[in-house]
Amino acid sequence: MKASFPRILGINSAIILSLAAAFRMQDDDSPMEGKGTGFIISLATAIFIQFFVNALLGYAARSIETRQSFFLAAMLTLLIGFGACIGGTYTY
After folding, report:
1. Which of 7, 8, 43, 54 could in theory staple to 74 by disulfide, Cβ–Cβ 3.0 to 4.6 A?
2. pTM above 0.85, yes or no
3. What pLDDT was estimated at residue 66?
4. pLDDT at 29 over 60
5. CA distance 92 to 89
6. Distance in angstroms (rounded) separating the CA atoms of residues 15 and 49
7. How many CB atoms lie under 10 A from the CB of residue 4?
8. How far apart are CA 58 and CA 23, in angstroms?
9. What keywords are annotated for this sequence in UniProt (predicted)?
10. How many Å apart are CA 90 and CA 48, to the nearest integer?
């Protein structure tokens, strides 16, 4: 787990942060009644898809070490991603 986990978590964190930045810039110009609603929905959907992909990759992994890395990365994706989702709404 030592070798693959930092790489898997780093890739997942980079994906979350880049999606959060992209959705935040995209939502600035959209005329909506509730500020930040489009950002929350877009990022929550992307986080769910990323969680599902990590869970499937963990299930399909042959090595128990890689399997644990993907499942832990899936849980941390939820934790970090929804934290970014909620934190991003306070910047409006």
Report:
1. 54
2. no
3. 86
4. no
5. 6
6. 12
7. 16
8. 27
9. Membrane, Transmembrane, Transmembrane helix
10. 21
CA distance to 49, 60, 73, per residue, from 70 (Å): 14, 10, 5
Place of tokens 């963990």: 58
Structure tokens at 50: 């990323």
Dump pLDDT digits (tens) for 40-91.
888 888 899 999 999 998 899 888 888 888 899 899 888 888 887 777 666 6
> 21 by DSSP, 3-state: which?
helix
Neighbouring CB atoms inside 10 A of 77's CB total 24
Q: How far is CA 84 from CA 66, 89, 90, 92, in A?
A: 26, 9, 10, 13
The two tokens of residue 83 are 């934290």
For tokens 């409006």, the residue is: 92
Predicted confidence (pLDDT) at residue 33 exceeds the cutoff of 60: no
Residue 81 is predicted with a pLDDT of 81
